[in-house]
Design brief:
Mean pLDDT: 93
Number of strands: 8
Radius of gyration: 21 Å
CATH superfamily of the largest domain: NAD(P)-binding Rossmann-like Domain
Low-confidence stretches: none
Largest sheet: 8 strands, mixed
CATH topology of the largest domain: Rossmann fold
Shape: elongated
CATH class of the largest domain: Alpha Beta
CATH architecture of the largest domain: 3-Layer(aba) Sandwich
Structural class: alpha/beta
Number of domains: 2
Strand content: 5-15%
Length: 271
């Protein structure tokens, strides 16, 4: 873990599922508990055992202030850390729908700010997080953010903050689409005569295994699909339904992702 963080400290605003997953990864990675200040209205019992500072006065110039509160709590949370602005502390936000400009209003335009969008598989260290910094976020700041966020999975950099709405729609909301696929795949199995528990076990393992294979295989997902599809076989029969250009996955997911991206834009505007 970064020496500056261990020496100057890290402030974590909000320690729910996402903040807790990150903190657990940092502590396992060697960050001293005494270097962490957690602010949370309902701290979990494990935080007390972890040895971090809980709802205590934090250092004057911590290396990082990571904002992990829910967007609707942002108005109450930010003023309490506004004094960290000015450039000495890197501010990282994992709050959905809150643009960099909002943080610059609170912390000042000279404050390095990095906006990040993780997703829920972060809870098991399998997330992916997209990051983008403001004009005062240097390469050193971005690398530090990558180090911190790699505790919960992969990290990618964006070229423009406008891409964050699409990221939110694809990877931020994406796990829910996959969970719904599992639900509906299992239900379809039940409709074909399988026991409900067996159908769910098959659906979970199939989606999970296919996802792992897609990440690890040298072939792209399109080729993996072809590898499974025998001419005139059962998979081809199913794919003719799923790949239909009018009612299949292509138009359905395009509409779904667009709806999520549009809502992300509305939230960024305060809608």
């Amino acid at each position: 873990m970064n020496d500056a963080i261990a020496r100057q400290g890290l402030v974590l605003m909000g320690c729910g599922k996402m903040g807790g997953a990150m903190l657990s990864g940092w502590l396992k990675g060697g960050l001293p508990p005494a270097s962490v200040w957690v602010t949370d209205p309902n701290p979990a019992d494990w935080l007390v055992d972890a040895g971090v500072h809980i709802n205590a006065d934090f250092p004057e110039d911590p290396a990082v202030a990571l904002i992990a509160v829910k967007p609707q709590m942002m108005g109450d949370a930010l003023p309490s850390v506004a004094a960290l602005g000015g450039g000495r502390t890197l501010v990282i936000s994992v709050a959905a729908g809150t643009p960099i400009a909002r943080f610059e209003e609170v912390f000042g335009p000279d404050t390095p700010v990095i906006r990040a969008m993780p997703n829920t598989p972060a809870a098991i260290g399998r997330g992916i997080t997209a990051i983008i910094g403001n004009a005062h976020a240097s390469e050193k700041h971005l690398s530090l953010a990558e180090t911190l966020l790699s505790a919960i999975g992969q990290v990618v950099r964006l070229q423009d903050e406008a891409q964050m709405d699409a990221v939110t729609a694809v990877s931020g909301s994406g796990p829910a689409y996959v969970f719904h696929l599992i639900e509906t795949l299992a239900a379809a199995g039940v409709a074909e005569g399988l026991d409900a528990d067996l159908a769910m076990a098959l659906a979970k393992a199939t989606v999970g295994g296919a996802g792992d294979l897609a990440e690890q295989a040298a072939e792209d997902p399109g080729q993996l699909r072809v590898n499974v599809t025998s001419p005139n076989g059962t998979t081809q029969a199913a794919l003719e339904v799923l790949m239909d250009e009018q009612s299949g996955f292509p138009p359905l997911l395009k509409r779904a992702v667009k709806a999520a991206a549009d809502r992300s834009k509305e939230l960024s505007r305060g809608g």
